[in-house]
Amino acid sequence: MTTATTATTATTTETGPLLSVRDLTMTFPGKRSATGRRGAPVRAVDGVTFDLAAGQTLGLVGESGCGKSTTGRMLVRLLQPTSGSVTFEGKDISRLSQGALRPLRKNIQMVFQDPHSSLNPRQTVARVISDPLLVQGWSAADARRRAAELMELVGLIPEHIDRYPHEFSGGQAQRIGIARSLATSPRLVIADEPVSALDVSVQAQIVNLLERLRTELGLAYVFIAHDLSVVKRVSDRVAVMYLGRIVEIGDKRSLYENPQHPYTRALLSAVPLPDPAAERRRERIVLLGDPPSPAAPPPGCTFHPRCPKAQPICRTDRPLLRPTEGREVACHFPGD
Ligand code: SF4
Predict the structure, then answer these.
(1) 314 CA to middle of ligand 1, Å?
(2) Mean pLDDT of the chain
(3) Domain regions of the chain by residue span
(4) Measuring from atom 7 of ligand 1, which residue has the nearest CA?
């Protein structure tokens, strides 16, 4: 049974959070085997709960397959949640019909990981960026004018508006994707690994751009990534996911300086330190094996087969998120 977590201590405005996610769950049907038998259902996201205030960034981190991208896709309704709610500006959007969702779509947009594969290669940049506006009923001339403005905003040359995506580098293509996401003046952008497909030198430029846009436009981000260094730069709060669940969520500074969940500690111990001497002194926590399959999660704490601190209770009792050291942690034995 899915149990609602309690990760609701985000800094919120007086009028409430911009985004409120409650007990969000996504279960995919099991794959069919060669004999035609269907495997066990896969619970990719299992009871995710958090709030996000206007103008803030929540970093969503974890290993590949932990459910962070599936969560992001449910927030923009590219995937229909199996259960749970997504409340945006006070309205539950998780069960709205596509028709009822259309006028709200302009307020929540998404930036994808691989810019080239997320842009239609047969459309000019003008068309790529203005497409969301045409859907909203803008005239072609007004949408084209807005597309040129957006190109300038994200650091592209507006005169290149009639070029095709393949004529741009990876970093420039991601700027096109960002411009497209901003076309309808959203309040919230879900950025799904927006820099992980880019060269390291270009990553910093895109991160700086996203930061500038957040300040200038008052955007809120859910920033999904596996790179904790990048997440540290952009986030106000951070949620760490493991096997479909949030295991630690809280203010960025306290989480990075004093991680409480053994999984968070292990992830952070692998982040390179800028000081070579500190890097040599630092003790790495090496996790055993790969994450278990979400089709057959271990009982109790799903992290127990890899946890260096596991005790007998961890094999039977699932730990819920509980307030710990100013944040929320799902562990029977948080801290050192
Ligand atoms: Fe490790 Fe037990 Fe905490 Fe799970 S509950 S993270 S197994 S100490």
Answers:
(1) 6
(2) 91
(3) 19-29+39-101+110-122+164-329
(4) 304
State residue 9's pLDDT score.
46
Instruction: Note the pLDDT tens digit of each residue in 208-218.
Output: 999 999 999 99
CA nearest to 210, candidates 199, 197, 200, 195: 195
Residue 162, token pair as written in the block: 């009639």
Q: 235 or 287, which is more confident?
A: 235
With the C-alpha atoms ordered 311, 312, 316, 320, is the resulting torsion angle positive or negative?
negative
Q: How far is CA 311 from CA 152, 180, 301, 332, in A?
A: 56, 49, 10, 9
Residue entry with tokens 């596996």: 226
User: Does the Cβ of 322 fall within 6 Å of ligand 1?
Assistant: no
Q: Please calculate the CA angle 163-164-170 and round it to the nearest 5 degrees.
A: 110
pTM over 0.70: yes
Is there a contact between 222 and 75 (Cβ–Cβ < 8 Å)? yes
Asked if residue 245 has its Cβ within 6 Å of ligand 1, the reply is no
Is residue 314 in contact with ligand 1, taking CB distance under 6 Å? yes
Cα–Cα dist 84/25, whole Å: 6
- The burial of 329, by beta-carbon neighbours within 10 Å (0-12 exposed, 13-18 middle, 19 or more buried), is given as buried
Residue 255 phi/psi, 5-degree rounding, is -65, -40
Distance, CA of 97 to chain centre: 24
Under CATH, what is the fold of the domain 19-29+39-101+110-122+164-329?
A: Rossmann fold (3.40.50)
